[in-house]
Amino acid sequence: MKQRSMLIDITRCVGCGACMEACMQAHGHTGSIDEVKDLSPTALTVLVEREDLYVRKMCMHCLHPTCVSVCPVGALHKLDDGPVVYEAARCLGCRYCMQACPFNVPRYEWDKAVPGVAKCDFCAERWKHGDIPACAAACPEAATVYGAREELLAEAHRRIDANPDAYYPHVYGEHEVGGTSMLFLSPVSFEQLGFKHSLPLEPLPMRTWAALSHVPDVISIGGALLLGIWWITKRRQDVAEAEAAERLAAAAPVSPKEVVHDTHETT
User: Fold this and answer.
1) How far apart are alpha carbons 104 and 102 in whole angstroms?
2) pLDDT tens digits for 78-105?
3) pLDDT over 70, % of the chain
4) Which domain holds residue 250?
5) Are residues 137 and 186 both part of a single domain?
6) d(CA 255, CA 232)
7) What is the pTM of this model?
8) Does the residue 8 lie in any domain?
9) Which carries the bigger pLDDT value, residue 237 or residue 56?
10) What CATH number does residue 87 fall under?
11) Which residue, 43, 63, 60, is CA-closest to 101?
C-alpha cells in the first residue's frame, strides 16, 4: 500500500489559518485560532510566524515512529498507509511517547479527569470515507497538498529544480529520522525557521533496539558483579561473627565444675 503524505510549501502559505480552523472543526474542538500560540490538546496543528513566513507545526507521522516503538501497551500504532494513530482506551498515561518524539509533538490532557495524549491523526477517520485531510482540503493557496509520498517527493524536487532561487535545496522530511509523511519546502534554511536540524537520518527505533539488545549483557555482567559483592560482604560478616564469638568465649568466667575438675587433676 502506498504511503500517503502531505507536501507543505512554505513559500505559498499566506498565514490565513484556514488549516487550523478546519482541523479544529474536524476534531470537534472550539475556540479562536487567534488565541492559539502552540500545539495543545485542542490545537493539533498551528501556524507559527518566522521571518515573515508561516510554518506549520503538527505530527510528522514518521515512517518509523519512535512514539510507537516506546509505547508499552500499543496505544500508538502506525497504519499501513501512513497515519500514526492513538487509542486512548489503551493508554496508561506513562507519557513515554512525549519523551521519545523527536519533534516534541504529543500533548498531554492535564485538565481532564482521565487524561490522554493528543496529536494530529492525519484525519485517518476521513480517509475511511474517501476524504482528504481537513487542513489540505481547506487550504486556499494549495500550500498543503495531499497525495502519495513518492509522487509528492517528485513534485517537491521538481519545484526546487525549476526555481532554485525560490527554494532552499532540501525537502525536509525526506530523510530525517528515516523519513516522515509530512514533507516541507522552504525559501530559507529550515534551521532559520526553527526546524530540528540535527536529527539523524536513520530511524530512531533502530537506536532503541540497538540499546535494548545490550540489556541481557548488562544484566549478566551486573548480576555477576552483584553476586561478587554479596559474597565478599557475606564473607566479611561471617569472619566478624566468628572473631566476636572467640572473644566472648575467651572472656567468659570459669564454671565451678571446671574449677573442681581442674583441682582433682592437680591433686
Assistant:
1) 6
2) 999 899 999 999 999 999 999 999 999 9
3) 77
4) 215-266
5) yes
6) 38
7) 0.77
8) yes
9) 56
10) 3.30.70.20
11) 60
